[in-house]
């Protein structure tokens, strides 16, 4: 584009602009949708061809009608809307093409709840290229265009024509409806701009339903008078496939393998993104953690019932909680002097502080790790844990080889192994208290398998790497595992914590406690 071109103004009819925008949106921004249809159609002719025509007609009509409505309001609103949507589309297309993300309701919630410090790690030269070429340059061209007015009836006539054509195509190709229904979730998360617009609205609507006061859970009964110190470590983005405790060929758990820590098999997360998984981990029932009546989460419940509860975090995303002490990692870093201050190791300083201030017989501490949060896995561990080389130091994961990517991720797991081993060493030295450690990750991670990266894919279609997670338990006293449990989930945590603290209530389920029922052993 020359400066001479930008110095001139050009005119275009509103209808012509709508056709150009609709075509550009279909061919460029919805290319992943069209490619998906071709790739998923076992018989392109005639089934795949019919699907392409039907989806193309539908997408073009929806886009045309959207912008026609905006043009009816005002041509300047139309111009501004096109610019904003093109820029948003260019960003969405980058992440869809690079990381194979699906912009469903869950992913939009993940994006909305991402902190700026984490979002900054995703900015790359490639992203800038997408935004400039597909967003900024079309915006500059559009700014130089003078949109000629069209009559209201003109907009209506063209919109009705597209609706009629689409309806005819849908009727003639009704044999493809079952295929569309089968692939609706993925299609709905790929179509631009509708995927992020509609799913953002759905997420906000769901969140608004949650802005209610928690319902209190029933009173707690003390079953064991013994002093109990229970630590729940919530990992981040750790998948069990890369833990040598679960059979991974690399020794990513050299320290934990020498300790009496128990890996629980077949453990899965409730979700593939942090906020929903945290709600599930802290809820007394998996279903009510996300849907239905909202009950107080575990930390609030225990604190209200007299347990000393401390939440220490190097992360974010927990539901609204009320605890005795809430400590962020940055507070601890201000007085930190060792070489792990910028990593999860700083959380151990917080637990030492909690130990020094213990006055209750029942103490519950949550440590929320940064863990293996991507895409910059190499920034989750100190240099001395760079055992597997070469590393991937780019946020553009496709720019790294498979070996580099896995090496960096495995190094982050190696550091978690160190972190948990150091924590066990601390717990072993607590006097007068029985100590229990529960470690569970919020979700897993895709490392390029099948061309998919990161996490957040709807669980119904997510690869197992995103929801098969490590679930580890350790106790300073000999405890017997509950042999009736064959498959573990995050829903086990609530009941296991109550049991480990020697507590019970009407909502406590012994069949969900990973350890043998405390009440039963006393009886």
Structure description:
This protein is of the alpha/beta class and 523 residues long. The protein has two domains: 207 residues, no CATH class; 299 residues, Alkaline Phosphatase, subunit A (3-Layer(aba) Sandwich). The chain is built from 19 helices and 15 strands. A seven-stranded mixed sheet has the order 5-13-10-4-9-7-8, sandwiched between helices. Strands 1-2 form a two-stranded parallel sheet. Strands 3-15 form a two-stranded antiparallel sheet. Strand 11 and strand 12 form a beta hairpin. Helix 6 packs across helix 12.
In short:
This protein has 523 residues and is of the alpha/beta class. The chain has helices at residues 3-7, 14-29, 31-40, 44-73, 75-99, 105-112, 116-119, 125-143, 152-172, 177-182, 184-188, 194-209, 274-281, 298-304, 329-333, 347-356, 402-428, 492-500, 518-522; strands spanning 10-13, 145-148, 221-222, 228-235, 262-263, 267-268, 308-313, 325-328, 362-368, 434-441, 446-447, 453-454, 471-475, 488-489, 503-504.
